[in-house]
Amino acid sequence: MTIAQSQGTSASNPPREINLDNTERLVSGGLGAFLVLNGLKRFSLGGLIEAGIGAALVNRGLTGHCHVYEAMGINRAGEGAPPEEYFHRGIHVEETFTINKPADELFAFWRNFENLPKFMSHLESVTRLDAADGKRTRWVARGPAGVPVKWDAEIINEEPNALIAWRSLGGADVDNAGSVRFVESPLGRGTELKVTIDYIPTAGVVGQALAKMIGQNPKMQIREDLRRFKQFMETGDVPTTEGQPSGAR
User: Fold this and answer.
1) Which of 63, 79, 162, 194 counts the highest number of beta carbons within 10 A?
2) Burial class of 39 by CB neighbour count within 10 A (0 to 12, 13 to 18, 19+)
3) Burial code of 162-184, b = ≥16 C-beta within 10 A, e = fewer?
């Protein structure tokens, strides 16, 4: 049996072009299955509508084809997002933290990207792809519903002790770009860390819906990461509540 036959296609009904990346297909299928099961449990018109939407998402994940992307001329299978996608679909986050450490010390720690999982809770690992200058790295993070999210990135601008800017490469599960600036605070009161991150959520609108279901907040997450970075650099330890009893709010 050919691939076309296994997908129920024929000469009069050619297979659709795959325009979703693997992570987007997984998330679409997972969210679709959830909606189908939840909708069928409700035994109502609204439940049937929910199940129908879920079935469409399951089909989206299985075929790897999105009709909306096709109409918009978007292909997420192996290509990085163009700048206009960041404008229309991206999430922009800016945060500033003052850390009581000199800029050169903070820069050196951050420039070794393998250090980032020490305080970024969503990161599992960052690995250098080139031993010479470490400008290309491979990132692995925990995505929606625990699905691993991977991408390769490269440094596109660097000023010693002052700036690091990066962007993801083609084929990334999550297209992203960002920068971190290290600015000496007035009167020698540490360093202002100015972080800017732009990224396109996994699975676009589907990923945003799933993120809301599991309570993710990208701005809050990055703020908490920087708070841990500040604590780590100033004290050498990152506070955690793991293993501690929870009290009344």
Assistant:
1) 63
2) buried
3) eebebbbeebbbbbbbbbbbbee
Task: Tell me which DSSP letter residue 10 carries.
Answer: B
Between CA 155 and CA 177 the distance in angstroms is 10
Strand ranges of the sheet holding 191-199, from the earlier edge strand across to the other edge: 91-99, 191-199, 176-184, 163-168, 148-159, 136-142, 123-128
Please name the helix (run of DSSP H) or strand (run of DSSP E) that holds residue 206, with its range, or none.
helix 204-214
pLDDT tens per residue across span 204-228: 555 555 455 444 567 788 889 999 9
Six-digit token pair at 36? 């189908």
Domains of the chain by start residue, with CATH: 15-72 (no CATH), 83-235 (3.30.530.20)
User: Other C-beta atoms within 10 Å of 105: how many?
Assistant: 14
Q: Residue 193's beta-bridge partner residues? A: 97, 182
CA distances from 7 to 17, 26, 27 (A): 12, 17, 20
What whole-number distance in Å separates Cα of residue 122 and Cα of residue 222? 10
Quick one: tokens of 99?
């850390």
